[in-house]
Design a protein that fits this description.
By secondary structure, this protein is of the alpha/beta class. It contains 14 helices and twelve strands. It has helices spanning about 15, 65-75, 75-80, 95-105, 115-125, 170-180, 205-210, 220-225, 255-260, 260-280, 280-295, 305-310, 320-335, 350-355, and strands at about 35, 55-60, 85-90, 110, 130-140, 140-145, 160, 195, 215-220, 230-235, 245-255, 315. The protein has a seven-stranded mixed sheet, with helices on both faces. It has a five-stranded mixed sheet with strand order 8-7-9-6-10, with helices on both faces. Helix 2 packs across helix 11, helix 8 (about 220-225) crosses helix 12 (about 305-310) and helix 10 crosses helix 11 (about 280-295). The radius of gyration is 20 Å and the shape is globular. It starts with 12 loop residues before the first helix and ends in a 14-residue tail after the last helix.
């Protein structure tokens, strides 16, 4: 049987004292957010405001798995669809800060991983957000020091990093460990494998220093480790039916969705257009995403990291709802999450309207839609 990821677990032990039990991390690089300048995106002459809005605030991570948003911004697609309504942007390093921004109204729509999306939904008793579209699948690998680990069975007894306790990759790795018949205490990370929770920003340095023997991490961290001499011995996509699993979705504040459906439609049009262009022009899209990463962070990815990282990500409008549900079920099975009620987390009505206009098939909410 294929092994599935599960998600939606608690944050690190230190955070538990200050945060609710189910606060989660996304596959990001910390918890800070920064407002990004959107002045370079010009409003088309003669265009009108959508829903009377001066601006729509869009959030995303500076991460290749958020490539749809990176490309759509770099290519001016958001502004094109929003007309005289200005596209404003905020970049984030982790899911909790983006959920907080959404809840406070600092952003209206965001690209985010499955764990914080479900966390935000369940913590608010289903009142804070909806998942309105898909964005990406894949882009997660187990990379190891080939001098210490030559096969998957050699992972036993080694130190393997994940981004954070309870984040998407952490739980996926814990589930994979359990599937091997090995035992690890989820909280401490101690057992037949030592799971070392390490921020993705410092994982390459820890790998070089030899303090970890490998890592189960998203792109581009996985490819950074390979560039440092590591070897990818498992692509998480191989563990999923059809080699697809949700890594990035699009969420919206429910109040914003109810009050400004035309603005939501405009953003989804830009997203669908971006994914279509990405899949038709992978090299140009890769360059555009890297250019936006450089604009946001001041540093572009080198080809030896960018090329393999981009290749391992699939960009899709389908939110792959069934895989999100499976992730939740696995978290519950592990005893790390109370069974959540996810009915209504998806509202794919506007997305399916956009897809129909593009001559594309509708996508499904796997029984977790609003209707």
């Amino acid at each position: 049987m294929p092994v599935h990821r599960s998600t939606l677990l608690r944050r690190g032990v230190a955070a538990l004292a200050a945060l609710p039990l189910l606060t989660l991390a996304a596959c990001g690089y910390g918890s800070d957010s920064s407002k990004s300048d959107s002045s370079k995106q010009k409003v088309a002459a003669g265009s009108s405001k959508i829903d009377g809005l001066d601006s729509v605030k869009i959030g995303y991570f500076g991460n290749l798995t958020h490539g749809t948003a990176l490309v759509a911004r770099q290519q001016g697609l958001f502004q094109k669809e929003l007309g005289a309504t200005k596209a404003d942007y905020a970049t984030f390093n982790a899911g909790p800060s983006e959920i907080e921004a959404l809840n406070s109204g600092s952003i209206d729509i965001g690209w985010i991983g499955p764990s914080p999306a479900i966390n935000g939904y369940t913590k608010s008793n289903g009142k804070s957000l909806r998942i309105i579209g898909g964005s990406a699948s894949g882009g997660v690998k187990l990379v190891v020091n080939p001098k210490k680990i030559t096969s998957l069975k050699d992972v036993k007894g080694k130190k393997i990093a994940t981004p954070q306790l309870g984040n998407t990759q952490d739980v996926a790795f814990l589930n994979w460990i359990a599937d091997q018949g090995w035992k690890v205490d989820a909280q401490s990370g101690k057992g037949d494998v030592t799971v070392v929770r390490t921020d993705n920003k410092i994982t390459p340095d820890a790998f070089k220093a030899g303090s970890i023997d490998g890592a189960w991490v998203p792109e581009p961290t996985a490819s950074k480790l390979v560039a440092e001499g590591g070897k990818a011995i498992l692509d998480e996509a191989s563990l999923w039916p059809g080699k697809k699993f949700v890594i990035t979705n699009i969420i919206v504040r429910q109040q914003f969705l109810a009050q400004h459906p035309k603005a939501v439609e405009a953003v989804l049009k830009a997203s669908v257009e971006a994914n279509k262009w990405i899949n038709a022009n992978p090299d140009q899209a890769k360059a555009a995403a890297n250019k936006q990463l450089e604009a946001d962070s001041g540093k572009a990815l080198k080809p030896k990291v960018l090329d393999p990282a981009w290749k391992s990500i699939q960009f899709t409008d389908d939110p792959l709802a069934a895989t999100l549900n499976t992730e939740a079920e696995h978290a519950v099975k592990a005893g790390l999450l109370a069974k959540p009620d996810l009915k209504g987390i998806y509202d794919l009505t506007i997305l399916n309207k956009v897809l129909k206009a593009e001559g594309q098939p509708a996508v499904d909410a796997a029984g977790l839609g609003t209707s």
